[in-house]
UniProtKB/TrEMBL annotation:
<dbReference type="Pfam" id="PF03259">
    <property type="entry name" value="Robl_LC7"/>
</dbReference>
<dbReference type="InterPro" id="IPR053141">
    <property type="entry name" value="Mycobact_SerProt_Inhib_Rv3364c"/>
</dbReference>
<protein>
    <submittedName>
        <fullName>Putative regulator of Ras-like GTPase activity (Roadblock/LC7/MglB family)</fullName>
    </submittedName>
</protein>
<feature type="domain" description="Roadblock/LAMTOR2">
    <location>
        <begin position="24"/>
        <end position="115"/>
    </location>
</feature>
<dbReference type="InterPro" id="IPR004942">
    <property type="entry name" value="Roadblock/LAMTOR2_dom"/>
</dbReference>
Amino acid sequence: MGGGASPDHRPPWERMNTDQRDLDWLLAGLVDRAPGARHVLVLSSDGLKICFTAGLDEDRADQLAAIASGIQSLSLSASAEFGEGLGAGQSMVEFAGGVLLIVPAGQGAHLAVVADEIADVGLVGHCMNELVEQIGGYLTAAPRRLEHDVRS
């Protein structure tokens, strides 16, 4: 018998418990360090919100998680079809009034930031990468498994 610990298959939000306050503090810190950053959200790759800054309510966080997950999925498809298939780094969508940046944040997780259109996206991206390094120990968001899913 192997002595390794079995993987934790609980949803990410159930694994966060005491570390949640630390993670909330780290997310809020990105808003403070990157002028123009409005909202920060950590999401699972299947589109579930894990945690988010106070400027978002539950419904808007759900909306942003679904949008960011879809964009990352499209980016991964583009990598597979037109690149070397090694995954997607940062994705960015510019729109009137703002910009959405998304980066991988550990196995099965992403970090999304909505910033003002005048924000320095280089600085925001840099702060996002620093945050991903900081939160790596808090996150490993495994994709949801349905009860009828019999794959191992």
